[in-house]
Amino acid sequence: MVLMEVKGVLSSKSLSLYPEVVLKEVDGNYYLRIVIGRFEAAAISTAHSKRQLARPISYDLAHQILAHVDARIVRIEITDFNSREKTYYAEIHLVDDEGKIHTFDARPSDAIALALRFGAPIYAAVKVLKDVGCVRSDDDEWVTAEVNAITKSVVAPREEHPTIATSAVNQLEQLKRRLNQAVAEEIYEEAARLRDEISRLNGDD
């Protein structure tokens, strides 16, 4: 497992109406960009920026309940990526008041939102990073700039990611990948929009 850190939550109007959480390898240059829902994006963004909401959301409530019974999340792991369904898998590792460890299957977005609230480390499997991670050999200013641009609104538009090719072929592949992710996450409104955009690029209109 590779230790990761949350760089922030990004939103790309050009390729998806839905945000992504960006994870970076702590001692390396691997990045993971995972498409998530708006609610999960807000939950991750507020915890990452250490902002306090007027009323607790479900993740805050879960944190309060677990802490009250002396249970805590000690780590989360992004364990696998299903290339056919374009779906990430994660596990939450929790220690109860007797010191017993419990492992729960979870969506990465839920696991990350909870990990941030407990200050728990986030890990990703080496295979996941090699299969779907991207490598940056230079600094990560492109991430920092985008994160700062949407700190107050996780669904605000941003400029297209500088590493995304501008050719129609590469854009089509990106759209297909996001379509598969949207279907897997049951974000059907987004899936329908992406299908329309793919059809337009294919000249099906």
Fraction in helix: 25-40%
Helix vs. strand class? alpha+beta
Q: pLDDT under 50 segments (min length 5)?
A: 142-167
Helix/strand order, N-terminal first: EEEHHEEEHEHEHHH
Question: What would you say this structure looks like, in words?
Answer:
There is one protein chain. The chain is α+β, with helices and mostly antiparallel strands and 205 residues long. It is built from seven helices and eight strands; from the N terminus they run βββααβββαβαβααα. The protein has helices at residues 38-48, 58-68, 108-118, 126-132, 141-149, 168-184, 188-202; strands spanning 2-11, 19-25, 30-35, 72-82, 87-95, 101-106, 122-124, 134-135. It has an eight-stranded mixed sheet with strand order 6-5-4-7-1-2-3-8. α1 (38-48) runs parallel beside α3, α2 (58-68) crosses α3 and α6 (168-184) packs antiparallel against α7. The longest helix is centred in the C-terminal third of the chain and has 17 residues, at 168-184. 32% of the residues are buried.
Layout of strands and helices, then pairs:
Layout: E1 2-11, E2 19-25, E3 30-35, H1 38-48, H2 58-68, E4 72-82, E5 87-95, E6 101-106, H3 108-118, E7 122-124, H4 126-132, E8 134-135, H5 141-149, H6 168-184, H7 188-202
Parallel strand pairs: 4-7
Antiparallel strand pairs: 1-2, 1-7, 2-3, 3-8, 4-5, 5-6
Helix pairs in contact: 1-3, 2-3, 6-7
